[in-house]
Amino acid sequence: MAWFKHPRDIRVGVIGYGGAFNMGRQHLNEAQKAGMTPAVVCEIDPKRLEVARTDFPGIQTFDDVNRMLAQAPVDLVLHITPHNLHFPLALKCLKAGKHVVTEKPFVLTTAQCDKLIAQARRSRRMVSTYHNRHWDGWIRRAVDQVVRQKVIGEVLRINAWMGGYGMPREWWRSSKPISGGILYDWGVHLLDYSLQLLPGARLTEVSGFAHDGFWAGRMPRSHPRKNDCNEDDALVIARFDTGQMLELSVSSIRSYERPGTMEIVGTRGSYTFDFSSFRLNLPQHGKDARSGKPTNMLHSGPHWDSQGYRFYQNIADHLCGRADLIITPEWARRPIHILDLANQSARAGRAMKARYA
């Protein structure tokens, strides 16, 4: 289905031009590089609206979403807001007949995913989420080596972890009701990576474990996150119908840094990567002449270049009928379903059966 003849016909608006990471500017710049037309910014902070006018001269600005949807010439709305606002704002925009891209995470629960998918179908509009890291160099190379070339044989297990040691900051990402919890930031990226490495595997059940209260108990009474702080440490174990297993761990009380590391264990070896490099370990049948131990074939090196620009290129091509949507809402629902089940499991103390693969 083609909604537009050319990407320049797609007028793009942003909800949230806030200062964190300059993500509003990044989204509009990437949309513009994909050929689309920045048209509108909606932001409650007047200082940030002024920044938007400087960044994109002539752009329309609003401080109210309802007025923007009623008055602005906008076709695609990008949501760069706190996580708990993704669902209500995306639903509002879809009902207003707009295409939607939310920042990741897509939303916070499986039920919210289902409602957005249903509304998008009713409105005959596209909804997606900003999985630009789907094209990171480290995962692209891992998919090539592990999935296409099968250099480590059949994948048995994936371990993914992130974290370090430190009290959560005084901002909304440290609030569980707003952020969804410690797993919902980098955990979503790590799950997106992992699911690319398990093509055809259908999720069957999820177990979740969490510890909280350590940092909350050490915060001063005036700390805004004292009563709603994220978990200190969380672990997810997901099982698939193939017998494969995925383990995700995110922590703020890990005493050593493990920044975005992943290990893929296969029947013929292992593949490990972090943000800087990869390591391929293939045990050989020969033995070391001195020790008598099996010898290993080791490979390591830098990653391929990342291609995050492909996210908005695909959005533009899809809206013009030139390509299938890669980050479909059903794909975006997969990591959210795992995290939602993990939260339920941690509360209930038992594994939760999956509804979606």
Protein described:
The chain is of the alpha/beta class and about 350 residues long. The protein has two domains: about 5-130, Rossmann fold; about 140-310, Dihydrodipicolinate Reductase, domain 2 (2-Layer Sandwich). Helices cover about 30% and strands about 25% of the residues. The chain contains ten helices and 15 strands. The protein has helices spanning about 25-35, 45-55, 65-70, 85-95, 110-125, 135-150, 175-180, 185-195, 310-320, 330-350; strands spanning about 10-15, 35-40, 60, 75-80, 100, 125-130, 155-165, 205-210, 235-240, 245-250, 260-265, 270-275, 280-285, 295-300, 350-355. The protein has a nine-stranded mixed sheet. Strands 3-2-1-4-5-6 form a six-stranded parallel sheet, sandwiched between helices. Strand 4 (about 75-80), helix 4 (about 85-95) and strand 5 (about 100) form a beta-alpha-beta unit. Helix 4 packs parallel to helix 5 and helix 8 crosses helix 10. It is globular. The two termini are about 25 Å apart. The mean pLDDT is about 95.
